[in-house]
Fold this protein.
Amino acid sequence: MTGGPDPRLTLCRVAATAVIGLLIASTALAMRPHVREGWHVGVAYGAAAGDFDGPAGETLEFEDGVSPHIRASRMVGSDLALGLSYAGWMYETGELPTKFRYSMQSLVLAASWYPGRADRALGGLCLRGGVGLGWVGYTEVEILADEEQGHGDRTGSSGLALELNLSYEFRLTDSVAAGLGVGLNSMGVADDRLESATFVPVTVNLGWYWD
């Protein structure tokens, strides 16, 4: 099965662009302390490489895709937050008139640990881990000229999902932060045709903090 460009090159480009942007932001703005109290909401978007044995027998070997993330948590101590984390992965391949669309999604209960002191550089570091429910989907869509595109025939499975994510953020204001994250999302699917699925995202993150 043919896919897009080399996912390793895409991930490297996303990471390099994000790092350059963050370095520019960090030099343009004074370093603010990473004070975390109350609530935190974050969004992220980037590239991800996904791998799984498809529900119809096809195999993906770390194909390039995109990955959106949403998270919300509340601090329960000076360096620990508990909350929910959503992560997704989407990929499309095939030649017209038939397209194949793959997706992975997970919603987990997550714990975020901030090991550094708020007034030090390591204060922007965060390690997040979570466990919850994951979904894997495969859709075959026929796209014909002058006809409305349908939803296609979708096959899906669900099972246990695990998330591990390492990120670093800079405070842009007292309540807004931006950073870069890299993660591993793995799912064990309860289906005879599909045993597991994994995607590895590299994302640009935005976060908001308030009491």
Summary: Residues 24-30 have pLDDT under 50 and may be disordered. The domain at 7-210 is CATH 2.40.160.20 (Porin).
